[in-house]
Amino acid sequence: MDMTAMFRNAKEFNQDLAGWQVENATMADMFVNATSFNHSLCSWLDWTDNVSNFMFLGSGCPENSVATSSSMCHECEV
């Protein structure tokens, strides 16, 4: 499933997506400039190979630029 830029520039979007099944998804730039989005996506950590490095750039996330093996919008316990 291709979720590339799905919420890009969605200024009002801020829903919890932690329950989404994303194991086969491509998530490049998914939340770029989604300035209100700030939910933790730590449940997605197993699929970080599917995300782009800058999927949170310009978002409302505290960790708002890179997705890493320990951060998916918020710092995650690994």
Give a description of the structure.
Helix content is 0%, strand content 5%. The chain has no helices and two strands. The chain has strands at residues 71-72, 74-75. A hairpin with a 1-residue loop joins strand 1 (71-72) and strand 2 (74-75). The radius of gyration is 11 Å and the shape is globular.
Question: Which short descriptors sum up this protein?
Answer:
2 strands; 5% strand; globular; little secondary structure; single chain; 78 residues
Count of discrete alpha- or pi-helical segments spanning 4 or more residues: 0
Number of strands: 2
Q: N-to-C terminal Cα separation, in Å?
A: 26 Å
Query: In sequence order, what are the helices and strands, one letter per element?
Result: EE
Quaternary organisation of the protein chains: single chain
Largest sheet: 2 strands, antiparallel
Please state roughly what percent of the residues sit in beta strands, choosing from under 5%, 5-15%, 15-25%, 25-35%, 35-45% or over 45%.
5-15%
Q: Which class best fits the helix and strand makeup?
A: little secondary structure
Weakly predicted, low-confidence segments: none
What would you report as the Rg, rounded to the nearest angstrom?
Answer: 11 Å
Strands of the largest sheet, in order across it? 1-2
List the helices and strands and how they pair.
Blueprint: E1 71-72, E2 74-75
Antiparallel strand pairs: 1-2
Describe the structure concisely for a colleague.
By secondary structure, the chain is low in regular secondary structure. It is built from no helices and 2 strands. A two-stranded antiparallel ribbon has the order 1-2.
